[in-house]
Amino acid sequence: EGKELAEHAAAAAQRAQQDSTAALGQRLQDVHFWKAELQKEIEDLDAETGLLAAQKQRLGRALDATEVPYAIATDNLQCRERRQPPDLVSDEVERELLKEVELIRNIQELLKRTLIQAGNQMRLNCDQKEVCEMDRSDKVETYNIDVNCGRYSNQSTNVQFHPGSVKFEESASTPETWAKFSHDNIYRAEREKLASINLRALIDNILHDVSEDLRMQCAAVNKAFAKRCEELYDTKHKLEHHLEKILKEVGDQEANIAALKQAIKDKEAPLKVAQTRLYDRSFRPNVELCRDEAQFRLISEAEELTESTVSLKKKLLESEQCLRNLEDTRMNLEKEIAVKTNSIFIDRQKCMAHRTRHPVVLKLAGYQ
């Protein structure tokens, strides 16, 4: 009976050990599964964080690139303040430049906010990756412990009694809570990874849109400048053509005045002759002081010459006033032409030349 009991106890102990070893084997499979899942999640998060970091760099480059068009637009506005009246007006070019400045400011604010968002998401990715790494580290340690436990046998020399270990720890997890812990970690990691992927797509869209908006606004400003310069050239050409006509009229009027002065001068000698004759004849004695035909003719001649001279002098005054008016017109035209020349120089030589430094779309999109 004692022998039978001993054999039964030995068989029961062997079966119990086999069951425990099998349970440890199953447990190793479970631990390995979650360890592999966590490793995959860690690698995915690490790769995703790297991709997000690249997008964050693009945002930074795009933000830096906006400084050039902003400087160009503000410089254009400042340069155009040096235009002279009547060209110092709020025209289409100024309105488009102000729109460009406002657009760039809004874009810079958007890029700064997105940079902060990307930085926050990268931190969340790293935090969740660290959680998964700690979980995996615990799984690796547990796996190694259970591997060693599975190798123990009755022939092992490194086994001994540990009566205090035959109990459940109060803080021990259940299989359900144990699996849920890793499942939740992976779920949160997947959630952050998805948020990171969506943010990268958003950054792509933002950079595409802002670079396109800047390109289109730059084109609108350039078009307004080209149109304004064309208007200035056309107006300047018309003013110069008008000035040519005025200069010809000035020349003609100066010649006319010279002719009138000469005509007045030419009347002096005949008038002197007529008046001298009349003066001398006024000394005729007594009855000889006769109103004869010669006297009538001399008086008529003197009056005609005087009247003609008065008429010529009046015409001379009118011509001189006309010349002064023409000179005033000439001066005004020359001032207007100078104003237009200055405006053309500012818009074409200063502003449009400066705008050739506007960054290309690839740079504005953060690729360069």
UniProtKB/TrEMBL annotation:
Primary location class: cytoplasm
GO cellular component terms attached to this protein's record: axoneme; microtubule cytoskeleton; nucleus; sperm flagellum
InterPro entries: Tektin-like, Tektins
GO terms (BP aspect): cilium assembly; cilium movement involved in cell motility
Coiled-coil residue windows: 229-263, 316-343
Entry keyword Cytoplasm: yes
One Pfam family linked to the record: Tektin
Compartments (UniProt record): Cytoplasm, Cytoskeleton, Cilium axoneme
This protein's UniProt keywords: Cell projection, Cilium, Coiled coil, Cytoplasm, Flagellum
Similarity comment: family membership: Belongs to the tektin family.
Protein name: Tektin
Organism name: Balearica regulorum gibbericeps
